[in-house]
Structures are given as structure tokens and as C-alpha cells.
């Protein structure tokens, strides 16, 4: 009898504490559960979500240098994990942080729902000169500015020097050469040459844009009208090309950023890794380029379709936006402008190749340009590859329903990998799918 | 007859009715008092959300044009939506294979453990039940790593025989990959339920059967299984509902196999995607209700058929 009562009490207490735990957890909007510790406790606090590998350092730097406001940081997940949580908070009308890290291609998605604040009136002029016009364009919708640029993602070809040396190949300059080199390595019994990951549809989109595709034509001045062109010839060509490489067994079809893929990169299962300038930061964080792997990586410009007319593209790259739920948008804007903008944070970002900075003080710093990147075995990666790629990047118009588009694309790429459709067919299906969704959402599709 | 009695003793009847009414009221109050806490929680956390979801499912919110009342349009859309239909078809197919498999394994294990009474049997019982004690999420993560071609044990085991390991996360084998995870997780739990039911069977029946010359096999099939039929039906209903609402395992394995497991892999995942990543709570609610309808139909049909069959057992 006694034990029973004891058990009941324990159970009730457990249930009670569970309820308490639930009520105190408001998904990061609450300043009491920061990942970082705030030392200047009497200052107002601004909450922030972000997932850069060195966020802790960046936040500490900001808090140390600032005497007006302190940042409370939570990492609620990388990419779509964070966006899903933000989306839920938008729908709920509560629970969003004051400042949020978003990739440039998602800004229109949140802006169209009225979830972001135009930060132009909160000190834009003071920092305007720190970034290029192109960088501002990526975070703007019309005349309004919805984010402070932090980093860009110029895409290039990371490759294993040891594998290239072993099979006596030089970095391919065109996609035709890329395929030839892949065939050569395969014929010699070598590893896969690259990877077609279904979960990195944003990269596939960038590669389609490189060939000349314009997935979306969207002018926020006319928010109802959108051009959706996902099955034009360049889009089809790129999907057919990668589908073909996968079918011939020249590239793998592993999802990227997974333990499986990362371990494959460490083991030298892939000769190349087509990715953005921020990739090395994530790779080293996951253990690539360490131990026996040290000094085996190098980087070359992205292969081209037409070597005479090279086109550079961007994948990822992010900004800090102020959300509509921020109680003090002026303070939040201060944080957005100030985070990852001080020299120390930026320097840490680019020396460790975590970010490719968009801040001009870093971009024009000879130390940045001439940096001998440790991950690339001392190669001057910025000077040789990334800075020219970033300079030549022309900018893109993104869809206001980016999440749906990229999910739908993931689905089609996995069909291509399965071999149930060709790349061209996948492009047609994608067009049909996304155009239908756009219409359902009230857009007039051209 | 009644009229006569009422006429004969109207007062007494009324009085007794009054007293009975008082007792009734007190009983009612006590009843409500006991049910109250449960009722509040039930209303607040089950009925109210259900009602709200039903209400949401009758509207449509567009990025351009805002929210409008559309009545059953979302349901019409769901039942013509290939994503929803393919997901529903998948869970139905999955149920047809996974439930019988789990039940057969659970039943076999329960019968064996019931027949054998050694220390080893008790240890085995615990070990078979153990997977259920591991949260499904962690179980799924663990199997994701075990399936891995890069560092899972499968590659080494198959390598010993000079063969390549099957990739259970590929689109061809994901069905079996998930089947294994689910069976591993739940068979032990069902085994415990069946084992408990077996413990409730009167042992004198076995003795009587043995005296009539029944062997162990006959005791099992003619006595034990028919007597635990209610428990079998219970776990069948549990597993049917659970499998049709399949969510945790594919959602976790999705991170390791995003290409294979799409966001619309099962209806529940599709509802989740619509609601939480595309902010379409209206359609998400409609999908959930449509799924609820499918679950209801399947369970009803199952109970309908087993009711008939039970008389044969």
C-alpha cells in the first residue's frame, strides 16, 4: 500500500515536472535558455537563432564589445530544421527569435508572409558601404532590405589531390572534361568521381542556372505574378547530365551532409566534391582533412559548359534578418548589423573557411585574399578560385515558396537516381508540380 | 399493469423515487468527481484539438489572397492528391506485411517462453522486450547507422563471404529496412502482452488436455491460442492503428536517406510537411482527418471480420 502511494506521488511529481519543463521551453524566444552565457546581465537581451560552426565565438565577440544589448543564441538546427521551426512560430504568432540566420534564397519565402522586418530605417546607411550592391540585392525584396549579408557561397570544385595524382588527371575545365575524367578514373578501377545528392536540390538549381536556366521570374512589385520555368532546355540538360553520370556509375547518389557521405569523403570514395566556399568549414567540423586526410584536398574553379563564356554560381550564403515578432526591432537590427561584422569574428570565419565573407573590409583585406588555406594544403584558394567566382556572380531571383520548390526537386532527383525517369522527364514533372502549387497558392503563373 | 400499480401506490412510489433520486444525484456527483480530472484533460487535449483541426481543415490559406472558407475542398484535394494516396497505399501495404509478421513472431515467442520455465527463458523474455524500452527515435537512429554502407557491420559481415551488403536505405529495400526496424521494436512488446494473457489461462486445462492425449503442439494450437484470442485482437488493432500512422522511423531515417524517403512518404509525414514546413495547417489538418478516416475504416473492417471468425476459434 505504502509503495503504491509512493509510486503515485512519484508519478505525479514526474508528470508535474514534465509540464513545467514544457511551459518553460518556448523554442528559443525565451531569453532564459541561451546556449551562450551572458555576462552583462543588466542589459536588454535579443534572442537569435543560427547554425554557423563558429557561432559561439561570434556571439561572445559581439557581447564583449557591445554595451547596449546582449545576444542570446540558440542553435535550433541547420537549414530546413530551423526554417520549419521558424515557419511554425510564424503561424503561431509567437515563439520566433528576434534575429534569425536565413539563407538568401529563403528571404522571399518569409517576407511574403510578412514575417521579416525592413531594416532600412534602423541604421542601414551606416553600414551600406560595407557590402557590395550585389550582396544587398540578394537580401532585398524590392526597395526594402530584409537581412544583413554575412556570407556568400561561390561554388567550386573541391577535389582530392592524391586521387587526381594517382590516376594522372588534371582538374577538368568543362563538364565534358569532367565526365571524361570520371570515366578514366572508373576504367582504372578508381573511386567515384563525384556525387549527385537528392537532398542538395539547391545546388542542382545553382548548376542549372550556370547552364542558363532562370527557374523563377519574380518581381515583388507585382507579387501575384510569377514566372516558373523549371523545364527549359538548360534545366533539362543539367539533370540529364547528372542523371547520366549516375547511371553510368561515375558518380555516387548518396545524400550529402550525412555521416555516410562525410565518411565517404574522408575515405576518399569521391574524387571531387562540387560545393560552395563554406563547405570546408563543415567538412573539417565533421573530421575531414584531419589525421591521414590532412593535405589531400585542393580546389579548382567550377567546370564550365562553355569554357569561353564562364558562368559562376552561388549556393547558400546567409544573412541575419529581424523578425516581425521582435519586441524591440531597433535593438534587434543593431544585433543583425553587428553580429559577424567585427574583424575578429570575420577573420575566424575566413581563416577556418567557415564562411566566405561578403563584408568588404574582409573581402578587400590582402590577408584574406592571399590566405594560404590550411584545408587546401596551403593553396591560395580565395585568390585563385573563390574571389573571382564571387566577383563574377550575377545574382538570382528566388521563389517566394522556396521550401516547396526544393522539396519537390528533391523528390524528382531521387526519381532520376532510381532510374525511373530521365532528367528531362524529371524537369517536366517538376514544372508541372511547382506550377500547380503556385496556382494553388494564388499566383498567376506565366 | 403499470398503470394499475402506479395508481395503487402513487405516494410510496414518489417517495422512493425521491430517495432514489437523491442517492442517484450523490452517486452522479461522485461519478463526475472521479471522471472529472480525466474529462478535463480529455476535453482539453483530445476533443478540443480535434475540433480545432476539423475547423482548420475547412479553410484554405493561400500565400496570395489569404484565408477563405472552402468546406470540403481540402478533402477532395487530399483524395485526388497522388502524394497522399501513394503514402496511404504505402502504409496499407506495409500493414499487410508487417502486422502478420510481428504477430506471428510475438505469438511464437510467447508460446515458447510460456512452455519453457528456466532462468534462461526469463532472461530471454527481458532481452526480447528490451527493444521496446528504447525510444523509437533512438532505435531508428541506431538502425540507420547499422544499415550504413560506410561504417555499419553489414558491409563487414557480407564482406566475409565476398558479397556486397544490401543497402536497406535504397529505394528498393527501404520497405524491408523499415519492416526490420518496426518488427525489432514492437514484436517484444506484443510478446509480453500475449505472454501475460497466457499466464492468465487456467493450467488445469492443460492437464485435462494432456490426459486426453494432446501433445504440446495441440495444447498450443487448440487451447492456448483460442483462449488468448482477445489479446491477439487487441494487439492487432494496436498495431494496425500504429502502422497506419507510421511516422517516427521514416522521419528519422529520412535524414540518412532523404532521396529514398520523401516528405510525403507516409500520410502523417505529409501532414507534418504541409503544416510545419509549408505553413499549410489547413491542408495538413485535412490530411490528418482523411488519415483518421482510413484508420477508422480499416479498424472497423478488421473488427467486423474478426468478430465473425472468433466463433470458429
From TrEMBL, chain A:
<keyword id="KW-0732">Signal</keyword>
<dbReference type="InterPro" id="IPR050490">
    <property type="entry name" value="Bact_solute-bd_prot1"/>
</dbReference>
<dbReference type="Pfam" id="PF01547">
    <property type="entry name" value="SBP_bac_1"/>
</dbReference>
<dbReference type="InterPro" id="IPR006059">
    <property type="entry name" value="SBP"/>
</dbReference>
<feature type="signal peptide">
    <location>
        <begin position="1"/>
        <end position="23"/>
    </location>
</feature>
<protein>
    <submittedName>
        <fullName>Multiple sugar transport system substrate-binding protein</fullName>
    </submittedName>
</protein>
<keyword id="KW-0762">Sugar transport</keyword>
<keyword id="KW-0813">Transport</keyword>
TrEMBL record, chain B:
<comment type="similarity">
    <text>Belongs to the binding-protein-dependent transport system permease family.</text>
</comment>
<feature type="transmembrane region" description="Helical">
    <location>
        <begin position="227"/>
        <end position="247"/>
    </location>
</feature>
<keyword id="KW-0472">Membrane</keyword>
<keyword id="KW-1133">Transmembrane helix</keyword>
<dbReference type="InterPro" id="IPR050809">
    <property type="entry name" value="UgpAE/MalFG_permease"/>
</dbReference>
<keyword id="KW-0812">Transmembrane</keyword>
<feature type="transmembrane region" description="Helical">
    <location>
        <begin position="286"/>
        <end position="305"/>
    </location>
</feature>
<feature type="domain" description="ABC transmembrane type-1">
    <location>
        <begin position="88"/>
        <end position="304"/>
    </location>
</feature>
<feature type="transmembrane region" description="Helical">
    <location>
        <begin position="125"/>
        <end position="146"/>
    </location>
</feature>
<keyword id="KW-0762">Sugar transport</keyword>
<feature type="transmembrane region" description="Helical">
    <location>
        <begin position="90"/>
        <end position="113"/>
    </location>
</feature>
<dbReference type="InterPro" id="IPR035906">
    <property type="entry name" value="MetI-like_sf"/>
</dbReference>
<dbReference type="InterPro" id="IPR000515">
    <property type="entry name" value="MetI-like"/>
</dbReference>
<dbReference type="Pfam" id="PF00528">
    <property type="entry name" value="BPD_transp_1"/>
</dbReference>
<feature type="transmembrane region" description="Helical">
    <location>
        <begin position="29"/>
        <end position="55"/>
    </location>
</feature>
<keyword id="KW-0813">Transport</keyword>
<keyword id="KW-1003">Cell membrane</keyword>
<protein>
    <submittedName>
        <fullName>Multiple sugar transport system permease protein</fullName>
    </submittedName>
</protein>
Amino acid at each position: 500500500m505504502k509503495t503504491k502511494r509512493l509510486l503515485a506521488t512519484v508519478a505525479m511529481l514526474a508528470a508535474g515536472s514534465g509540464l513545467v519543463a514544457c511551459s518553460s521551453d518556448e523554442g528559443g524566444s525565451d531569453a532564459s535558455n541561451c546556449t551562450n552565457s551572458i555576462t552583462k546581465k543588466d542589459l536588454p537581451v535579443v534572442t537569435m537563432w543560427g547554425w554557423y560552426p563558429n557561432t559561439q565565438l561570434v556571439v561572445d565577440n559581439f557581447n564583449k564589445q557591445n554595451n547596449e544589448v546582449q545576444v542570446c543564441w540558440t542553435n535550433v538546427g541547420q537549414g530546413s530544421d530551423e526554417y520549419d521551426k521558424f515557419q511554425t512560430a510564424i503561424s503561431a504568432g509567437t515563439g520566433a527569435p528576434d534575429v534569425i540566420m536565413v539563407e538568401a534564397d529563403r528571404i522571399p519565402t518569409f517576407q511574403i508572409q510578412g514575417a521579416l522586418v525592413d531594416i532600412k530605417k534602423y541604421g542601414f546607411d551606416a553600414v551600406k558601404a560595407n557590402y557590395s550592391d550585389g550582396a544587398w540585392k540578394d537580401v532585398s525584396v524590392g526597395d526594402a532590405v530584409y537581412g544583413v549579408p554575412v556570407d556568400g557561397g561561390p561554388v567550386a570544385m573541391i577535389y582530392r589531390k592524391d586521387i587526381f595524382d594517382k590516376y594522372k588527371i588534371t582538374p577538368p575545365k568543362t563538364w565534358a572534361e569532367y565526365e571524361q575524367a570520371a570515366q578514366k578514373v572508373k576504367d582504372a578501377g578508381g573511386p567515384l568521381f563525384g556525387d549527385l545528392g537528392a537532398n542538395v536540390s539547391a545546388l542542382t538549381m545553382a548548376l542549372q542556372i550556370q547552364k542558363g536556366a532562370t527557374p523563377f521570374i519574380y518581381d515583388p512589385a507585382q507579387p501575384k505574378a510569377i514566372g516558373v520555368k523549371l523545364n527549359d532546355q538548360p534545366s533539362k540538360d543539367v539533370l540529364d547530365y547528372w542523371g547520366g553520370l549516375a547511371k553510368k556509375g561515375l558518380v555516387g547518389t548518396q545524400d550529402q551532409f550525412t555521416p555516410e557521405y562525410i565518411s565517404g569523403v574522408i575515405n576518399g570514395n569521391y574524387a571531387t566534391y562540387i560545393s560552395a566556399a563554406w563547405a570546408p568549414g563543415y567538412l573539417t567540423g565533421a573530421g575531414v582533412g584531419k589525421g591521414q586526410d590532412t593535405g589531400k584536398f585542393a580546389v579548382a574553379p567550377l567546370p564550365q559548359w562553355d569554357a569561353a563564356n564562364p558562368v559562376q554560381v552561388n549556393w547558400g550564403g546567409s544573412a541575419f534578418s529581424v523578425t516581425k515578432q521582435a519586441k524591440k526591432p531597433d535593438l534587434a537590427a543593431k544585433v543583425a548589423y553587428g553580429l559577424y561584422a567585427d574583424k575578429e569574428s570575420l577573420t575566424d570565419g575566413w581563416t577556418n573557411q567557415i564562411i566566405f565573407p561578403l563584408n568588404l573590409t574582409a573581402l578587400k583585406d590582402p590577408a584574406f585574399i592571399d590566405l594560404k588555406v590550411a584545408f587546401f594544403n596551403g593553396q591560395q584558394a580565395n585568390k585563385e578560385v573563390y574571389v573571382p567566382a564571387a566577383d563574377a556572380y550575377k545574382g538570382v531571383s528566388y521563389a517566394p515558396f522556396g521550401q516547396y520548390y526544393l522539396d519537390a526537386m528533391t523528390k524528382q532527383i531521387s526519381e532520376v537516381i532510381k532510374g525511373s525517369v530521365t532528367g528531362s522527364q524529371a524537369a517536366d514533372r517538376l514544372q508541372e508540380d511547382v506550377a500547380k502549387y503556385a496556382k494553388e497558392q494564388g499566383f498567376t503563373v506565366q | 399493469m403499470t398503470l394499475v400499480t402506479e395508481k395503487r401506490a402513487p405516494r410510496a412510489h414518489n417517495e422512493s423515487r425521491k430517495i432514489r433520486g437523491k442517492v442517484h444525484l450523490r452517486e452522479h456527483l461522485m461519478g463526475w468527481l472521479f471522471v472529472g480530472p480525466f474529462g478535463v484533460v480529455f476535453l482539453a487535449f483530445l476533443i478540443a484539438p480535434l475540433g480545432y483541426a476539423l475547423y482548420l481543415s475547412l479553410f484554405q490559406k493561400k500565400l496570395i489572397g489569404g484565408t477563405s472558407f472552402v468546406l470540403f475542398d481540402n478533402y477532395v484535394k487530399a483524395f485526388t492528391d497522388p502524394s497522399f494516396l501513394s503514402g496511404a497505399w504505402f502504409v496499407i501495404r506495409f500493414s499487410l506485411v508487417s502486422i502478420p509478421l510481428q504477430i506471428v513472431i510475438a505469438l511464437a515467442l510467447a508460446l515458447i517462453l510460456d512452455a519453457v520455465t528456466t532462468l534462461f527463458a526469463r532472461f530471454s523474455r527481458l532481452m526480447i522486450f528490451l527493444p521496446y524500452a528504447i525510444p523509437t527515435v533512438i532505435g531508428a537512429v541506431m538502425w540507420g547507422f547499422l544499415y550504413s554502407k560506410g561504417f555499419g557491420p553489414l558491409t563487414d559481415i557480407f564482406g566475409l563471404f565476398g558479397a556486397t551488403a544490401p543497402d536497406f536505405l535504397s529505394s528498393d529495400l527501404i520497405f524491408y529496412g523499415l519492416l526490420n526496424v518496426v518488427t525489432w521494436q514492437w514484436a517484444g512488446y506484443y510478446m509480453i502482452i500475449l505472454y501475460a494473457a497466457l499466464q492468465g489461462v487456467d493450467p488445469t486445462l492443460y492437464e485435462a488436455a494432456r490426459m486426453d492425449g494432446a501433445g504440446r503442439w495441440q495444447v498450443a494450437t487448440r487451447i492456448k491460442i483460442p483462449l488468448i484470442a482477445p489479446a491477439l485482437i487487441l494487439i492487432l488493432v494496436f498495431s494496425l492503428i500504429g502502422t497506419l500512422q507510421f511516422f517516427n522511423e521514416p522521419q528519422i531515417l529520412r535524414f540518412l536517406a532523404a532521396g529514398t524517403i520523401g516528405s510525403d512518404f507516409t500520410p502523417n509525414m505529409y501532414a507534418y510537411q504541409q503544416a510545419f514546413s509549408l505553413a499549410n495547417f489547413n491542408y495538413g489538418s485535412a490530411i490528418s482527418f482523411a488519415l483518421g478516416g482510413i484508420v477508422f475504416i480499416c479498424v472497423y473492417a478488421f473488427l467486423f471480420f474478426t468478430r465473425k471468425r472468433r466463433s470458429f476459434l
